[in-house]
Design brief:
By secondary structure, chain B is α/β, with parallel strands linked by helices. Helices cover 36% and strands 13% of the residues of chain B. In chain B, α2 runs antiparallel to α6. By secondary structure, chain C is of the alpha+beta class. Classes of the chains: A alpha/beta, B alpha/beta, C alpha+beta.
Chain lengths: 174, 183, 421
């Protein structure tokens, strides 16, 4: 990992997108750069074309749910990597859960296709401009976004995990 | 018929037994399994088929990859809720007589994956004859499960599908028994 | 091709209590013929798909015109599961990602946690890990390459190579007791040092394996039939492969020398001398050859690590995560408390975000871990290389024959467990 680039790259982004970069912090060798959600396409496009750092590989797209973070419940995280300079950066955009829309980067990186679909499937983030935004891992008929914190992990049909079998009479009427 | 069934008459150069027993013996040693291998257990099943453990020793040389010609459905690996209907469809396509071997914790009970997406045991959609525990089971365990299936086959009546108990079971799983299905 | 799941039968909701939860959908067959173009259903239970993948192919005769993929048939919710489990208990989940090379997944996870807690791992642990990880890489590539052989009609290599895989399993067994889903090692190192049986078995393996592997190699790599059958099948160019997020052997076959072991070395990989094999065309033959060469390089790395194994401890000093030895747990109050805390997942962990990646069997296997200081990760996301590069599959098989589609799939080494999370 190239440590000396860390400060530079944040500055470089700030120079080119003065209003877009909201905050940045250093997290274990990789700078976390928070940006305005509307600008994600521009920034990824810029970084891919840019020859100074050549951050042209999209490693991962994911989301994180922070239910207590009012107005910025969902964070969409883009991991980017420059193979020639060996710089990794992480770009974050926070979205409100009522309007979880962000523009798709599928046409910049074809590999974003399924990663965006997966993020939609798990968290319900809507990627505007995605050509085929359907669920990918779960069934189409599923009506909730399972990785949001409020939903249970366990399968609801398991009977042997009933509290009554462990001597804890929660539903004592039966 | 019960008394005759247990009788084997030996004579010089010949042996007499009931047709049931002869057919069961033949069936048990020539099972054509359909490996429905989805995940980790599938790799252990491949090892079981491989040269070290050699499944062919038990009369299972021929893996049948079409359900139409298979007798034994070996379900090895996690079955998710998305895959459940497909597994059931495969089972329904198999001709009678048919048996099911559930290999591994996931297929038997969901295993460590007590999650929203995993079917908690294939016995919720199809009847299972033998369960093999383990995550994944060692090849020896899979072979043990298969030997148990062979024991079952050897002691079952030739026309199991006409038995009321069996029909009741199929009805419980909502699987239609089709008379035109094979022998 | 179409027979296996293509019966025009509709499966509807069955048992009453199940229909509530399972939400059966009606499965309508897709097989149809429209003029010259036929639609066939390749998978999900087709034997040639090496896992549960569905591809709906539009074909004109033998030629594939388009393909539509469906995945997720063994989605097991690893990421949600990881949010409910203490750090030590996540290791068994990682096993089941890419089950052909589970030790790499385990050790990658341990290294991620070590990065978060700032553990200082002894050199000996690094070398031990390298040996185990490279053995796992060999086991992974052996499965892939022998299956490519099977798909071209050469079952012999498969039976020979599975025998060799059994020897690798035996080596795992000496270290951790398990064969496939190994749960090998601990956060901070290994449970115990390599036993004498491991040493002797590894020596025998290093001596005997190259010979048998050479036989396998000579069986296929310069075999005329095999070459004709695999060259030019399922090609992808370097540019396109990068766009599609390819990593690992499949990318190197396309000619890009990206290897996590070299670009950001972990576990002392910088100490070893090895080369990164690259291909030219990115076709099935190149992928096969790259994996063959990687097996040889892995052997070289193992030999180097084994002969230069430093003295020292087989574990790091991380009492909060590494279980104390049983003899102490029974006799020592402090050890008992630590044991209890570790098993119940009550140890303190720093907050922060970590991304750590290792070179898995199929490419860059990443762990994006967010810790809020709780007993379980706040969020754990896996970068699963299969999931990302399998997207390119339709593009790779368009214009090819149906049997080439099978070959491309097996040479990509798509592992269902890793793909579907």
């Amino acid at each position: 990992m190239n440590r000396e680039y860390k400060e530079e790259i944040v500055q470089y982004l700030q120079e080119n997108f003065p209003n877009a970069v909201l905050a940045s912090e250093d997290a274990f060798d990789v700078p976390n750069i928070e940006i305005q959600a509307q600008t994600v396409r521009e920034i990824l496009q810029f970084l891919k074309k840019d020859s100074k750092y050549a951050i042209n590989f999209l490693t991962l797209i994911g989301a994180v749910h922070y239910p207590d973070n009012a107005g910025r419940e969902l964070a969409v995280v883009y991991h980017l990597h420059s193979w020639t300079k060996n710089i990794r950066i992480r770009i974050k955009a926070f979205l409100p859960i009522d309007y979880p829309n962000i523009s798709s980067v599928m046409d910049i990186y074809p590999c974003a296709d399924w990663m965006e679909r997966e993020t939609y499937d798990f968290y319900g983030v809507i990627f505007d401009g995605h050509k085929n935004l359907r669920r990918i891992l779960n069934e189409d008929s599923m009506d909730y976004f399972p990785l949001r914190k409020e939903y249970h992990l366990e399968d609801a049909t398991r009977e042997d995990k009933d509290d009554r079998y462990f001597g804890r009479f929660k539903n004592s009427e039966s | 018929m019960g008394e005759i069934n247990d009788k084997v008459i030996n004579g010089e150069g010949y042996q007499l037994t009931t047709l049931d027993k002869a057919v069961a013996l033949a069936r048990s040693n020539s099972i054509w399994p359909l490996p429905f291998a989805t995940s980790c257990c599938g790799i252990e099943f491949m090892a079981t088929m491989g040269s070290n453990y050699d499944l062919s020793r038990f009369g299972m040389e021929r893996m049948s990859f079409s359900p139409r010609q298979a007798d034994l459905l070996i379900v090895a690996g996690t079955i998710s809720k998305k895959l459940g209907p497909i597994l059931k469809q495969v089972y329904e396509q198999m001709a009678e007589p048919r048996w099911v071997l559930s290999v591994g914790a996931c297929a038997s009970s969901g295993g460590i994956f007590d999650t929203y997406s995993v079917l908690q045991g294939i016995d919720r959609i199809i009847p299972v004859d033998v369960y093999v525990p383990g995550c994944p089971p060692r090849p020896e365990q899979i072979i043990d499960g298969i030997i148990n299936i062979q024991k079952l086959v050897r002691h079952e009546s030739m026309r199991r599908r006409y038995e009321p108990k069996y029909q009741e079971l199929m009805e419980k799983y909502d699987i239609k028994l089709n008379d035109e299905q094979g022998v | 091709m179409t027979d296996i799941s293509g019966d025009s039968k509709t499966v509807k909701a069955s048992m009453e209590e199940l229909s509530k939860d399972l939400k059966y959908k009606e499965y309508i067959t897709v097989d149809s013929i429209d003029g010259d173009i036929a639609t066939i259903n390749f998978g999900p239970t087709h034997p040639a798909t090496h896992g549960i993948f569905q591809n709906i192919l539009k074909v004109n005769g033998e030629k594939i015109l388009s393909s539509e993929q469906t995945v997720g048939y063994i989605h097991r919710a690893f990421e949600k599961l990881a949010e409910r489990r203490p750090y030590n208990q996540i290791t068994p989940i990682t096993d089941r990602l890419n089950y052909c090379s589970s030790p790499i997944n385990n050790i990658g996870w341990h290294m991620t946690v070590e990065k978060l807690i700032g553990a200082d791992v002894p050199k000996r642990v690094d070398y031990m890990r390298v040996i185990i990880m490279e053995l796992a890489r060999i086991a992974d590539h052996l499965i892939c390459n022998s299956v490519v052989g099977v798909d071209t009609g050469a079952l012999t290599g498969f039976t020979y190579m599975f025998q060799e895989r059994e020897k690798i399993y035996e080596l795992y067994e000496e270290v951790c007791g398990a064969r496939l889903t190994t749960n090998i090692g601990r956060i901070g190192g290994f449970e115990r040092d390599f036993s004498s049986a491991f040493h002797s078995k590894l020596k025998t393996f290093l001596k005997e394996f190259p010979k048998i592997f050479g036989q396998f190699d000579s069986l296929l790599s310069r075999n005329r039939i095999f070459m004709d059958r695999t060259r030019g099948v399922g090609p992808i160019g370097a540019e396109r492969a990068m766009d599609y997020g390819f990593t690992g052997p499949n990318l190197r076959a396309a000619g890009v020398d990206y290897d996590v072991r070299v670009i950001s070395p972990y576990s002392s990989y910088e100490d070893f001398d090895f080369i990164i094999p690259v291909g030219v065309n990115g076709d099935t033959y190149d992928r096969f050859m790259v994996r063959q060469e990687e097996i040889r390089q892995s052997l070289r790395i193992i030999e180097q690590a084994y002969s230069n194994m430093p003295e020292g401890s087989y574990k790091a000093d991380v009492p909060d995560f590494y279980l104390p030895p049983k003899s102490e747990v029974y006799n020592n109050m402090e050890a008992l408390i630590y044991h209890f805390k570790i098993v119940m997942g009550e140890t303190k962990i720093p907050t922060g975000e970590v991304y750590h990646c290792v070179e898995g069997g199929n490419g860059e296997l990443g762990y994006y871990l967010i810790s809020d200081g709780g007993r379980a990760p706040y969020r754990l996301q896996f970068r699963r290389p299969c999931f990302i590069y399998y997207q390119a599959y339709p593009e790779m098989i368009t214009g090819q024959g149906i049997s080439d589609a099978v070959l491309t799939l097996s040479s990509l080494n798509v592992i269902a467990g890793e793909l579907d999370a």
